[in-house]
Amino acid sequence: MMIALHRRLLIVDDDAALTAQLADQFSPYGFDADGAANPAEMRIMLARRDYALVVLDPMVQPANAAGLLRELIAEHRLPVILHSAACLEAERIAALEFGADDCLSKPAHPRELLARIRAALRGRVQDRPAPSATIRFAGWRIDLETGQLFDGTGRSVPLSEGEFQLLRVFVEHPRQVLDRGHLLDRVYGDASEHFDRSIDVQLCRLRRKLSASGLKGPVIRTIRNEGYMFVHAVTH
């Protein structure tokens, strides 16, 4: 099964009308965009979902715009495009030196902003090192190349394709709350006609198999009204 490429953007801007306009403009080109009006909302969204890139107006935190940019780049390791009325030549140079991927004067033409987003994402894909083929948690091991799960004794634990892909999403985002929409996109693809409850069915089967195979204690926790979280730390 092919997993859909992740194309979700986070727009951090206190101009709700502009955020909605950009989301509408980006949608026909395969990008979903969420909005956050301030740093607190931004952190909530980042905890709930996995984003490919952030479009940031640093004026949502004018007293420490550099700190906000550093947080996104250093802590969340996300590509960031600044979109601000403050993106003059000196500010643009400073933003690039801090690690931003680009800086556009606001309001940029949506098609130009989209082109800069695509260029930033292409650059990240080209620079990304090959991921590890093995992920470990609680003494267990997942082989991403062969699609197999092994328990602490090295015995193979049989999983269906859907169960394996669901587990893979969780171990790639440990200790993060993932909502049903995100899980549907990653497991079935964003063009799928599967509905939310299909994730619940797969999750129930996965939990049952992990428990029956000897994995003790809670593994995937239900976070009420928010989604699910894989509780174990993972290593590559």
Automatic annotation (TrEMBL):
Modification type 4-aspartylphosphate: residues: 57
Domain Response regulatory, chain residue ranges per copy: 8-121
Domain OmpR/PhoB-type per the UniProt entry, residue ranges: 132-232
Keywords: DNA-binding, Phosphoprotein, Transcription, Transcription regulation, Two-component regulatory system
Keyword Transferase: no
PROSITE patterns: OMPR_PHOB (PS51755), RESPONSE_REGULATORY (PS50110)
One protein family per Pfam: Trans_reg_C
DNA-binding span(s): 132-232
Protein's recorded name: Response regulator transcription factor
Source organism (scientific name): Sphingobium naphthae
Source organism phylogeny: Bacteria, Pseudomonadati, Pseudomonadota, Alphaproteobacteria, Sphingomonadales
